[in-house]
Amino acid sequence: MARHVVAPAREIPPGGRKRVEVAGRAIVVFNLGGEFFALSDRCPHKGGTLSQGLLTGLLESSAPGTYCYTRRGEIIRCPWHSWEFDIRTGKSWCDPERVRARNYPVSVEPGARLVEGPYTAETFAVTVEDDYVVVEA
Amino acid sequence: MNIEVRQPLRARVERVKPAIVDCDVHPKATLEAMRPYLAKRWQDYLKTYGVRSRHGFAKGYPYPKGTPQAARRDAWPQGGGLPGSDLALMQAQHLDHYGITFGVMNPLSPSGQGEQNPEFSAALASAINDWQIAAMNARDPRLKASIVVPYEDGEAARAEIHKRAGNREFVQVFLLSRTAEALGRRRYWPIYEAAVAHDLPVGIHVFGYSGWAMTNSGWPSFYIEEMTEHATASQALVTSFIMEGVFERYPTLKIVLLESGFAWLPALGWRLDKLWTRMRDEVPHVKRPPSEYLHEHFWVSTQPMEEPEEPDHLMEVMGWIGFDRILFASDYPHWDFDDPFLALPPALSDQQRTAIYAGNAHALYRLV
Question: How much is the pTM?
């Protein structure tokens, strides 16, 4: 798998997301409080575009009448059928083993390292002063 | 909201695009957009009194829809307006993107259906019919219109069908599933009489404002129950059509069930047949096993298709209904939209797939 520089890190602030094209594949990159995650942008259920979905939390209940809302901002809901996916793993909540969005290793690298290669940044210039999101795909 | 029309992915580009007729497309008008097609009297009425559905709630839906406007979150036009209101977005995101050759428009609301004032109901239905032609069909003839009728008034509905049927851009008569009485009852027969007179199928789309709670034990608690209830409501209306003798009276009547699912149909047929053998003399006008009427007079649309764990079960259900009776439908732009390229079961033969995508709809709707 090649490593691709997909965006300056400041372009995806905490809570933000960005759809990128990497080697012909649509990928959505999330920034969760400074941690970055990358998923295939195509919903594994029926093909909706995950990056256009609602970013939400996980609602659970141990019994009727009680509820627990956790993991705020860590669940992406497909804009079509509202399937919920964990942005950390790509697994769906309802059928985690069979229906999962592919996830990709992602890191933030300082520009000073990237300008030395062997990275590819096709659409923008990399400068030594900035940090960049790098997706392995 | 960030709107981006999806780029075709590689796998899609390589595949030859099949001809697709989409039998359930929802264009969205507003009362403001319909105003030019209303007489001054009704424009004034609308301003003073507004619309009043047969439900007791004052505004909005009985159940929140899960997503705003029950729409795909990527279907909101960038320039404002509601999903389904912008023809250019509908073309780019749906018709052109998937190569839809024809789309049958099923306007849900506002459309006058279920409006309490019977004359206003008729005026609004007529206005939405004008709007379908002027705002959509005239600008993109792939989009065929439905004759929206004020169905609680059989005579007014009959008049609207006669008024529109000469225009072949109207391809069906359009009803909703939740009505004041079961749809087989005689008050609705003028609709069927006019439909068969013009050889138009009658499409019945789920939802509507009947004035009744949507289950026979009242109002359920959740939207997920409302979505499930469409299957039981549709069983009741299918049963009503058969048991009231509608098909004996109108032997060429064709009914299309839109968005009701269909896996419940075989079980309904079995149950009806079993009871008919024991109680046939209660309904002597039902001359044949009920499932025969079911097979002869009903078509179903694909979306939302049941998704059994075992894919073969879906194929068996489809086989019982008949591969010549199933019509492709996407439900664009609603949240439970089916992607035309992915929706149909892979196990279908090429012939079955072609029939469901387009052939059955061409034969039924006589599309030109």
Answer: 0.90
